[in-house]
Amino acid sequence: MELSRAAAVLRRGGVGVVPTDTLYGVLGCALSQRTVECLYRIKGRSPKKPFIILLSSIRELGRFGIYPSASERRVLDCLWPGKVSVIVRCKDARFRYLHRGTRTLALRVPKKKTLIALLKRTGPLVAPSANKEGKRPARTIREARNYFGESVDFYLPGGKLVGKPSTLIMMRNGTIRMLRRGADARRIKINLLRK
C-alpha cells in the first residue's frame, strides 16, 4: 500500500502496521477516541497505560493544549526530531482518553522522512509497538500479521526492524529524568549537556 492510501485510511479512523524510526508500530489517529480505544482492544493492552504519540513537528504540541516554556522548548529542540519520547503535562480534560488519568502525554517527533510525510497527511498518531501485550515487538510484517491478522486495516512493509524502542524521558518543573534507556540514549545525553 502506498503512503497516500495509508494516510487516507488513518484519517478515516483506520489502523495500520507501519515501520517507525525504531520498531514496527500499530498506528491510529490520536485525535479520535474511537480509534484509540480500538487500538487498546487490538493490542490487549492495559487501559491504564497511555500510548506514545507521534507528531510531524514541535508545533503540533499546541493541538493538545501544550505550550512549552522557552527553556523546555530548548530541550525539545535538542531532542527532536529523534528517537526520544518526552512525557509532558497535559491538563486538558478532552484528552483523558489519551492520558488515561495520568494528566501527561508521551510525545515524539521522529526523524524518518517517510514517517514525517505520513504524519503531515494524517496529523498526530498514537504509535504503540506492533505486538500483543507482553509479547515481543514484531520485527517483520509477517510477525505483525501473526499478532493482528485482519484486525488492522493495512500493513506497510519496511524490511526487518531490530532495534530498541525510543528512549523515554520526563520533563517537569525544569528537571529531566530518563525513565527508559532506549534508542539514541547516549546521543540524547550529549545533546542535553550542550544545551
Characterization of this structure:
With 195 residues, the chain is α/β, with parallel strands linked by helices. The chain has one domain (3-194): DHBP synthase (Alpha-Beta Complex), CATH 3.90.870. Helices cover 32% and strands 21% of the residues. A 9-stranded mixed sheet has the order 7-1-2-6-3-5-4-8-9. It starts with a helix and ends with a helix.
The CATH superfamily appears as: DHBP synthase
The SSE order reads HEEHEHEHEHEHEEEH
**Mean pLDDT across all amino acids:** 91
The helicity comes to 25-40%
Regarding CATH, which class? Alpha Beta
**Range of strand content:** 15-25%
The beta-strand count equals 9
What is the structural class?
A: alpha/beta
Relevant terms:
7 helices, alpha/beta, DHBP synthase, nine-stranded mixed beta sheet, 195 residues
